[in-house]
Amino acid sequence: MTLGDLPVFLLGALLNLVVALLVVRLIYCRGTQDKSFVLSFLSINVVIYFLLQFLTGVELSVGFGLGLFAVFSVLRYRTDEVPIREMAYLFVVIGLAVMNSFLRSIDDLVKLLIANGTIVALLYVLEREWGFRFETSKRVIYEMIGLITPANRELLLADLRNRTGLPVKRAEVVSIDFLRDTAELRIYYDERATAGRTSQAGGSPVVSGQEADGMAWRPDGRAAAENAR
Question: What integer best gives the mean pLDDT of the chain?
Answer without folding.
Answer: 76
